[in-house]
Amino acid sequence: MAASHSACAGTVSRFNRRVVLKRVALAAAFAMGCAGAHAQSYPDRTITLVVPFGPGGPTDSSARIIARALGAKLGQSVVVDNKAGGGGTVGPMAVVRAAPDGYTLLWGGTSSLAMGPGLYPKLGYDPVKSFAPIAQVVRAPHLFVGRPDLPARNLTELVALAKARPGKLTFGSAGAGSSTHLAGESFKATFGVDLLHIGYKSGAQAVADVLGKQIDLVFDAVPALAPSVQAGTLRAFGVTGVARSPLLPNVPTISEQLGQPFDAYSWFGLLAPAGTPAPVVSKIAATLESALKDPEVRGQLQSAGFEVLGSSPEAFADTIGKEAAKWTSLIKKLGLTSE
């Protein structure tokens, strides 16, 4: 009797497992069907593109070019929402808290995703896990310039001058922990020079003080500095990219002058909140890829000093992880923190 009861129990148990597995499979199929249907109808309303800096800068200008291009191809408005603060970390938090439906996207970059995690130990998001990367879109090197009256005509002479006067030459940036500050600190560490950092509230203020001969050197965006270099009021010492800038083709890179690998970029890309349906991410990625092939869009980005990239979501996730590790290591070595 006991054996019979045990056999019945086993049969019921197997039956229950089959029922449960069938229900799980049906639920999964239903979820996939819903995601697919969502992707087919997406977008059916306005999309918000969160930019973690204020209007007017290179982050904002590049985001607006992409917003217009995406909107035209998707048939819906893509509205830029500037959420500045926290060194570029306030905007990403707004995206993390948004519904993962593809209607709130992030224009994330070096400061928000690669430097923020090192500067803000209690940051409320993970640069990779909290988002669904869509594509790295553009990048731009910095330009290293100085006063034209410095007794150094090129970068080799500048390094020799800095080594002869340790801690005497000053370089300005857009503030402690900014991408231009960390580009300068990376330069110091790579080439063994001691430059005194002077932080400002903006890159424009730092540039103004180099022009006014209050400080000696500055790292800043190529488009912002190119007119002064061409006018002879600033001396260009090198570009921080792996290739020369089309805006200043006669200015060599730092690497080609000093014979050591060196690069420091500001880069930007498109991300959605983690959990956004894969078909929606794929649709945005495909639309973005198409937009970046448009000569007019590419021209606008290049005129603003950007190198147009485009990447797969997987490649962008890999870039974010590597860049975050690189800059967090330097930030820890310098003992920098914003908390």
From TrEMBL:
**What SUPFAM superfamilies does the record point to?**
Periplasmic binding protein-like II (SSF53850)
Ordered alphabetically, the record's keywords are:
Receptor, Signal
Its signal peptide is 1-39
| Superkingdom | Bacteria
List the Pfam families.
TctC
Asked if the record carries the keyword Ribosomal protein, the reply is no
Indicate the family of this protein.
Belongs to the UPF0065 (bug) family.
Q: What protein name does the entry list? A: Tripartite-type tricarboxylate transporter receptor subunit TctC
